[in-house]
Amino acid sequence: MIRQNSGTYKTTTVAGELVRAFVPSPLPPVPPIDMTSELNRIMEKALLACGRLDGISALLPDPTIFLYAYVRREAVLSSQIEGTQSSLSDLLLFEIKEAPGVPFDDVIEVSNYVAALNHGLERLASGFPLSNRLIREVHSKLMSRGRGADKLPGKFRKSQNWIGGTRPGNAHFVPPLPNMVQHCMSDLEIYIHNTNTPTLIKVALAHAQFETIHPFLDGNGRVGRLLIALMLYNDGVLNQPLLYLSLYLKQHREEYYRLLDVVRTDGNWEAWLSFALECIEQTASGAVDTADRLLKLFASDEQRIRSSELNIGSSLRVFSFLRERPIVNIDRLVKDLGISFPTASKAISVLNTLGVTRELTGKQRNRVYVYDKYLSILNEETHPMK
Length: 386
What we know:
The protein is built from 15 helices and 5 strands. With about 375 residues, it is mostly helical.
């Protein structure tokens, strides 16, 4: 549907140039979303896929078993959309203090994303409302170190930004004027708590609106994708926060940006909504497949360990730890499992001999071990963008 009132333009002067900044109309759209039979069909498929994902997560012996790796996979993918070259392996190595061979700022940005997402999820789990205050807190964590640390972490912008081009005067898109950001975000906060709109529709519309407002000087794309995960978790679509959309958005980046533009220029929310619901359905279905493959892998490898003559009690403890953190060193095992260095070394030696893990560095000291098949599954489609 083409709408005439998706927003208004405000003219201002920036660096001596006249600039037309776009101010989106408050959500929900007027006239309301035209829920065609096709849109309803896509939404039903998305809801069913989310239900299947919630069901398979309920089968996990430990509900947090995938969270550590899933959150980090999302951090890598979302940051790659913004141009970082860090991989999942780089991040996991960084977290055990093994410097990866990538630009330091890249892995810092991904590490910040993990901290931001975890902060948001923990705050929601404690009963804190999904609000502009929480969004600013998440942004503060995201921009706390590395590139962007000088871009007002945790604060809405006080100056004009733009998308594309070298300045507002030749930009592809100019978001609202700085003095309108707080008002636009207040309207968005009200909509986020709208109980009359199905969650999946609300998530899709809120994400597009946030990207149009572009309330921060930097980090808007990543915070906008974080907002999706926080809303899905906050509204109880999933009992465990295992649905992250950055892989699909990375794979369809041009269409993603084009449809955001269509919302702004034509008010065609239905086209954007169709894309967003398809994204949720495909991502949830993919997550179900990934979780199923991982559960089968874990069961097979555990059986191999149990039936081996080499098995010692500590090898199963180390294997259990690797199901959460697929890259480790001996020091990490000693610290987190409370076992001795010789015990950890013997256990990892058993897993290496059985082909469950392998050593990464080739060194005699400060060795690092990877649960290869697990990491390979997680690494699918996470290669940095060219």
